[in-house]
């Protein structure tokens, strides 16, 4: 079962196991992880699941779609080149060990 490590702004980390095909956002909310609000439930409509993808993993993810790109322009924390919406990251065995950093704030 693939796992993701979420790193909080204060440096602590949570490693959560995911189901194949589950989004990173779904895995975070299922485990009650602080820092992922997911107000729209994963429908790519709110940007409250904003994360920073560890640079070592960026090239393993699909390109940002136009709707995700537009939402990333309105995130509460600074948009960086490695910003993504965790609802748009579908976890596969190839992403086992993915590292995502949580921003300071989501709203």
Observed structural traits:
single chain; 107 residues; alpha+beta; five-stranded mixed sheet; 2 helices; 5 strands; 20% strand
3D structure, described in words:
Strands 2-1-5-3-4 form a 5-stranded mixed sheet. The protein is α+β, with helices and mostly antiparallel strands and 107 residues long. It starts with a strand and ends in a 6-residue tail after the last strand. The protein is built from 2 helices and 5 strands. Strand 1 (3-7) and strand 2 form a beta hairpin.
End-to-end distance: 31 Å
Looking across the biggest beta sheet, what order are the strands in? 2-1-5-3-4
Uncertain residue ranges: none
Order of helices and strands: EEHEHEE
Structural shape: globular
Beta-strand level of the residues, as a percent range? Answer: 15-25%
How helix-rich are the residues, as a percent range?
Answer: 10-25%
Major beta sheet summary:
5 strands, mixed
What integer value in Å does the Rg equal?
12 Å
How many DSSP H or I helices?
2
């Amino acid at each position: 079962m693939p796992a993701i490590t979420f790193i909080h702004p204060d440096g602590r980390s949570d490693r959560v196991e995911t189901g194949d095909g589950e989004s990173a956002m779904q895995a975070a909310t299922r485990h009650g992880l602080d820092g992922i609000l997911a107000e729209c439930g994963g429908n790519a409509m709110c940007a409250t699941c904003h994360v920073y993808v560890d640079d070592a993993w960026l090239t393993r993810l699909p390109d940002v779609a136009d709707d995700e790109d537009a939402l990333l322009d309105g995130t509460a924390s600074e948009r960086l080149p490695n910003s993504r919406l965790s609802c748009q990251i579908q976890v596969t065995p190839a992403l086992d060990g993915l590292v995502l950093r949580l921003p300071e704030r989501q709203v």
